[in-house]
Amino acid sequence: MRSSNPVFSRRGFSRDNGYAGFNAAPQAGAPTAGANPYAQGTAANPYATNPYAQQDTQYGAPQAPARSGAMTIDDVVTRTAMTLGTVVLTAALSWALLPVDEANLGKSYGIAIGAALVAFVLAMVQSFKRKASPALILAYAAFEGVFLGVISSAVSTYISPGTVMQAVMGTMCVFAGVLIAYKMRWIRVTRRFYGFVMAAAMGFVLLMMVNLLFSVFGGGDGLGFRSGGLGILFGVIGIILGACFLALDFKQVEDGINYGAPREESWLAAFGLTLTLVWIYLEMLRLLSILNGDD
Questions:
Q1: Rounded distance, CA 234 to CA 207, Å?
Q2: Gap between the Cα atoms of 151 and 164, Å rounded
């Protein structure tokens, strides 16, 4: 099974020409979950005396023998920093170069919408590619940053100057909180957890799409899911879903490292984490805009 993002499904990490999902079902004839394939004491296994053939009994996760070129947590951190750094840099540049005053509002919004569409297409292409493409991922981050920069500038100009910083801090707090909870094993990513999150996310996205259609053809805020009390409720739900997908991302990264995924696939981890953090930031910005707009 593979982990997914609230908007874009993406492939799991490679392992022996397969995929290392967060709780992948064993193949026929393969060792069961938690068993090290190098620790089988049978005559058919030439690695039965391998010194690395130790089963990780503390967490029940299979550990692959150490090999060169395998993904590490440092690789994931570095690629994620590069991807998020691209988002932040282009967002800052678009904020400065694409003002949202009355004279330039239409032009800036047009560029932001165009950048969002390009980012969506690039993300979809990468999601269905078998291998990670660093150029594609960084291009997605750049266009996503343009969109976020203009939207953030508009919120800061027309709603509240402090809303953007509050949303940034809120996103960082959600990330830190989920990471701590995951490392402390307060959150356990299981098949049931995965199924519940995916079902909730699909329902959430469908409701937002219906609301968007009603707002386009009927005017106003459609069904009212993005304003008032309902807007606050759905904003909180969106943030909680983003936090759940962070846990799925952390589990996928952990499994990818344990299974010895190739180093270049750390770009997939960076891509997934960036998608999830952008989701959380947008939901946080929308929620705070409603709250600050009501003051």
A1: 10
A2: 10
Burial group, residue 286, by CB count within 10 angstroms (0-12, 13-18, 19+): buried
Please list, in sequence order, all residues whose beta carbon lies within 8 angstroms of the beta carbon of residue 202, skipping any fewer than 6 positions away.
none
Q: Is the pTM of this model over 0.70?
A: yes
Mean pLDDT on 20-29: 39
Mean pLDDT computed over every residue of the chain: 78
**What is the SS3 assignment for the chain?**
CCCECCCCECCCEEECCEEECCCCCCCCCCCCCCCCHHHCCCCCCCCCCCCCCCCCCCCCCCCCCCCCCECCHHHHHHHHHHHHHHHHHHHHHHHHHCCCCCCCHHHHHHHHHHHHHHHHHHHHHHHHCCCCCHHHHHHHHHHHHHHHHHHHHHHHHHCCCCHHHHHHHHHHHHHHHHHHHHHCCCCCCCHHHHHHHHHHHHHHHHHHHHHHHHHHHHCCCCCCCCCHHHHHHHHHHHHHHHHHHHHHHHHHHHHHHHCCCEHHHHHHHHHHHHHHHHHHHHHHHHHHHHHHHCC
The model's pLDDT over 134-155, given as tens digits with 9 standing for 90+, comes to 999 999 999 999 999 999 999 9
In whole angstroms, give the CA distance from residue 2 to residue 103: 47
- Using the predicted structure, report yes or no on whether residue 21 has a pLDDT greater than 70: no
C-alpha dihedral sign at 251, 254, 260, 262: positive
pLDDT on residue 13: 55
Average pLDDT over residues 175-188: 93
Length of the chain: 295
For the segment 99-105, the average pLDDT, to the nearest whole number, is 81
